[in-house]
Design a protein that fits this description.
The chain has helices at about 1-15, 35-50, 65-80. The protein is mostly helical. The protein is globular. The protein starts with a helix and ends with a helix. It holds the Pfam family PP-binding.
Length: about 80
């Protein structure tokens, strides 16, 4: 599931937020992808809606996460951990 989840979140970044796909690696921090504040909010909103996960307690720190950590966070919420 994590691979599919990673691909889906990558697709949101590339297709919806126009992030260069070459920049998205597991170790890249979300805040280094040059998303403005509106795009960052859109990322959170789309991920929450698409995967039906509650990220509200983590929203303030999402920019500091790496792409891989974001995928793991969403995966943990999907798993109910």
């Amino acid at each position: 599931m994590t691979g599919d989840l990673s691909s889906a979140i990558r697709e949101i970044l590339v297709d919806d937020l126009e992030v260069d796909a070459d920049l998205i690696t597991p170790d890249v921090r979300i805040d280094s992808l040059e998303l403005d504040s509106l795009a960052a909010v859109e990322l959170i909103t789309v991920v929450k809606e698409q995967f039906s996960v509650d990220l509200s307690e983590d929203e303030s720190r999402l920019g500091k996460l790496t792409f891989g950590e974001l995928v793991e966070l969403v995966n943990s919420r999907l798993s109910g951990s």
